[in-house]
Design a protein that fits this description.
Layout lengths: L2 H20 L3 H6 L1 E9 L2 E4 L1 H8 L7 E14 L2 E16 L2 E18 L2 E18 L6
Length: 141
């Protein structure tokens, strides 16, 4: 497999993470990580894939999320890789004043391992660069 193929596979992996989280597909999410993976961010530290899935299921408090994956730069060395990925995550929720939209500007710092020909996340660190919480403009379906 070429370096470009590995980088494409890593990009698809981080996109599948966004899709699994937004669709609340916890089985698909679990397949993206190694069993001993770590997911850390502001106020959370999930150790192991079971803790990651349990922790991420807390997103159920939002009526909808959309993670938009942007810049993704990866460095591949044989069967290991690291990357930084930019993401804007939208979270809709209900408040006394109506529907609100919490937006996060995220940078993920990731480490990956290629196991049996498939890339998996071994460590994901969520860095929150900015956030805003505004009334939703327009109808949410």
């Amino acid at each position: 497999m070429s370096e470009a193929s590995h980088k494409q596979a890593l990009y698809e992996l981080v996109c599948r993470y966004a899709q699994a989280v937004d669709q609340r597909d916890w089985t698909a999410l679990a397949r993206l990580f190694t069993s001993d993976a770590v997911l850390q961010g502001p106020g959370f530290d999930f150790q192991g894939v079971e803790a990651i899935v349990a922790g991420m299921s807390g997103l159920g408090r939002f009526s909808l999320t959309q993670h938009h994956v942007h810049n993704h730069l990866a460095d591949v060395e044989e069967l290991e890789a690291q990357a930084e990925t930019y993401c804007v995550a939208n979270h809709l929720y209900e408040a006394d004043t109506g529907t609100r939209k919490l937006d996060w500007g995220i940078r993920y710092r990731d480490r990956f391992a290629c196991i049996d020909g498939l890339w998996r996340i071994t460590r994901r660190e969520l860095l929150l660069d900015w956030s805003q919480d505004l009334p939703l403009q327009g109808a949410a379906q």
